[in-house]
Design goal:
heterodimer, A: mainly alpha, two-stranded antiparallel sheet, 10 helices, 61% helix, globular, disordered C terminus, B: mainly alpha, F1FO ATP Synthase
């Protein structure tokens, strides 16, 4: 069995090397990375000259399309499972219940008393990013799309007559490097912009930032709900009180870290998913045959673990926020902690 | 130095220096987790959970460096 796998891998590498030297490969022009989600169409507006962003109107980006798709799948699954629930779960309901229960047990380990109150939001985040990241790894999601003429290139070439005159000369003298790839119907061609139909929701900073804002806002909301106005006592501590001036400084740091949480939440998942896409694209560009496979496996792992991390951190922060932690609440807080631990 | 050269140097520095700290941190996390698992094999599941939590939190720092490196390198920032 092992020999057979090795043989298949070896044959694939040889075929890949032959195709690479025949010229069926990616070139530097094909490597197009956009940190922002590309608009598929601008609602009530037009594209700007480079065709990459909306000049006016509301952009409808490929990331929005993917978000709607993931939402539809999630709502469909929820309705499909929820319509005929059975006491003894079987099949698909069993699988969904396993996912929910697995995370519920973990969240109960963090904060047993209040977990039922704030479990819905982290679970929603977990499901959304899990499905979104996994669906983004399906082949064709980032690679099927439309070609759009890069208007700015043509305009600048027309504006400068000497460069326009020089261009056909150099093109005639030096044929473009990959010969075979350009004959494929899927090839976009030089000077054209490739816009994929779908893009991972987490690879758009708007989506992750929105989720981070919602998560942090809800954490603060639960904090105020549980402790009332005394929640502010965690951040603004009287420097002449029992706790001392150093704790005042610590409180201000806490307040600052509370705000930085939004940025950290948003950039953590955006960076992981977007960075993973870039790594896959660069590996495909270096050697498209068999080299991206181990990185693909890593991306599957990252897609899962980052969704879990976002949800777990929301649970942990919510659990921290609802715990009383002031000087007059100190003894009270310790007894409740002890009760939770046992 | 041309703009492009400065961009490339900035990108390489961002990724290279950004990998130092998280590399050491991830080593510490996995080392401590393996030690804990060896000492207390019954707690392996729990230790693994928190190991991956710490791993992801530490790795996020490198990812910040990677993303900003890429943004600098492709001239977006």
């Amino acid at each position: 069995m092992r020999n057979r796998i090795l043989t298949v891998l070896g044959v694939l590498v040889v075929i890949g090397a032959i195709m690479y030297f025949l010229g069926i490969r990616m070139t530097k022009d094909d490597l197009h990375i956009s940190a922002a989600a590309e608009p598929l169409l601008c609602i009530g507006g037009t594209l700007n000259s480079s065709g990459e962003l909306c000049a006016s109107g509301v952009p409808f980006t490929n990331s929005v399309l993917m978000t709607i798709l993931v939402d539809l799948i999630l709502v469909g699954v929820a309705f499909g499972v929820g319509q005929n629930m059975k006491l003894v779960p079987r099949g698909f309901q069993n699988m969904v219940e396993f996912l929910v229960e697995f995370f519920y047990d973990f969240a109960r380990g963090v904060d047993k008393k209040n977990v039922a109150k704030f479990f819905a939001l982290p679970m929603t985040i977990l499901f959304f990013f899990l499905f979104g990241n996994m669906l983004a790894l399906v082949p064709g999601v980032g690679s099927i799309g439309v070609c759009r003429a890069e208007a700015a290139v043509a305009e600048s070439a027309a504006a400068k007559p000497e460069s326009a005159a020089a261009k056909p000369e150099s093109a005639a003298a030096k044929p473009e490097e990959p010969i075979l790839v350009q004959r494929f119907p899927a090839y976009c061609g030089k000077g054209n912009l490739f816009i994929p139909w779908l893009r991972a929701p987490a690879a758009d900073l708007n989506v992750t930032f929105a989720f981070a804002l919602v998560a942090v806002f809800m954490v603060e909301f639960w904090g105020f709900q549980a402790l009332g106005i005394g929640y502010l006592g965690k951040f603004f501590i009287n420097p002449f009180g029992k706790q001392g001036a150093i704790m005042t400084f610590v409180g201000i740091l806490e307040l600052f870290s509370e705000i930085m949480r939004i940025v950290a939440f948003a950039f953590r998942i955006f960076g992981n998913i977007f960075g993973g896409e870039v790594v896959l694209a660069v590996m495909t560009f270096l050697f498209a045959y068999l080299l991206p496979v181990p990185f693909y496996g890593l991306e599957v792992f990252v897609a899962f673990i980052q969704a879990v991390i976002f949800a777990v951190l929301t649970v942990v922060f919510a659990g921290l926020a609802v715990q009383a932690h002031g000087d007059d609440h100190e003894d009270h807080g310790h007894t409740t902690n002890g009760a939770v631990a046992h | 130095m041309s703009d492009h050269a400065a961009q490339l140097i900035g990108m390489a520095l961002a990724i290279g220096i950004g990998a130092v700290g998280p590399g050491a941190g991830i080593g510490v996390i996995f080392g401590a987790a393996i030690e804990a698992m060896g000492r207390n094999p019954e707690a392996e599941g729990l230790v693994r959970t928190y190991m991956f939590l710490g791993f992801a939190l530490t790795e996020a720092l490198f990812i910040f460096g990677l993303v900003f490196g890429l943004l600098i390198g492709f001239g977006i920032l």
